[in-house]
Design goal:
Blueprint: H1 2-17, E1 21-24, E2 31-37, E3 40-43, E4 53-54, E5 74-77, E6 85-86, E7 96-97, E8 102-103, E9 111-117, E10 120-127, E11 142-146, E12 150-154, E13 179-180, E14 189-196, E15 199-201, E16 204-207, E17 210-215, E18 218-225, E19 248-252, E20 260-268
Parallel strand pairs: 4-13
Antiparallel strand pairs: 1-2, 2-3, 5-20, 6-9, 7-8, 8-20, 9-19, 10-14, 10-20, 11-12, 11-19, 14-17, 15-16, 17-18
């Protein structure tokens, strides 16, 4: 009886903590993880999980999204060249330059900053393709990674149904945005991200990362505690925290779609 009570108590603690739980699927050994949210219990990447409400950003034109870098910022991309960027092996990136922007082309791989950062304020502007092709995760897919590890999803989420924890501005697989403030395909959009890095002691995370995110000037994550990693581990599973260094690159994802980026700058913050 004592063993049963201990097991029950452990399950209750997991539910109260809001952490993902894991089950082994009956077929093909598929791992299925669940998360307990305010509106129910959902699979990771659950198509039935309610999507956030749609709101229209307040900007009247796509030029209004431009956030000029403050004087203390590290400018990573100002539209004039890729000198601050490499591929994941430190070599020359295959991303191409356009008129004031850089663009991912199929097979180009991830691009990452030469400089590394920990806790920071990050400004990024992006545009998904104006010509709509594909659906769900196959439409304007990319991502902004802090420390090369933790993803804020980039996706064409304008009239495009997908799983709520993978739509535009989601902390991929971990946190659904408060609202969907996406602009139309082809229009410039912005992220302003306040990120505080995780802290590790040996193999253990002793302080989890937090995110505050504005999408097109609209608050979509309000000091959200990141409960684990954001790496895709299957249709219904997500990675956990893995110990890493105190700094890492800003990384942009090649997901096979021609997504454009411009005006990227960083302000380093104290932990």
């Amino acid at each position: 009886m004592r063993t049963v009570l201990i097991c029950v108590a452990a399950c209750v603690l997991v539910i109260l903590a809001g952490c993902a739980t894991t089950e082994q699927a009956a077929q093909k050994g598929e791992i299925r993880q669940y998360v307990d949210a305010d509106n129910g219990r959902w699979l990771i990447h659950d198509m039935n999980r309610p999507a956030p409400a749609v709101v229209k950003p307040g900007f009247e034109s796509t030029q209004d999204v431009a956030g000029k870098a403050p004087s203390d910022a590290v400018v990573l991309f100002d539209g004039t060249g890729l000198s601050e960027w490499t591929d994941t092996k430190g070599g020359k990136s295959k991303w191409i330059m356009g008129d004031g922007y850089m663009e991912c082309v199929k097979g180009s791989g991830y691009i990452q900053s030469r400089r590394e950062f920990g806790s920071c304020q990050l400004h990024v502007e992006f545009a998904t393709p104006s010509r709509v092709q594909g659906s769900s995760q196959g439409r304007g897919n990319s991502g902004v990674f802090l420390m090369g590890q933790y993803e804020v999803q980039v996706l064409d989420s304008y009239n495009n149904r997908t799983y709520a924890d993978g739509q535009c501005s989601a902390l991929y697989g971990r946190a659904v945005p408060l609202v969907n403030s996406s602009r139309e395909p082809g229009e410039w959009q912005s992220y302003d991200i306040i990120f505080h890095r995780p802290v590790f002691k040996g193999d253990k995370v002793v302080k989890k990362a937090t995110f505050t995110v504005f999408h097109n000037g609209v608050l979509v994550h309000d000091h959200v505690l990141l409960t684990g990693g954001t790496g895709w581990k299957g249709p219904h599973a997500i990675s956990d925290y893995v110990p890493h260094e105190d700094t890492g690159p800003i990384s942009l994802q090649d997901h096979g779609n021609p997504v454009r980026y411009r005006n990227i700058w960083v302000r380093e913050l104290a932990d």
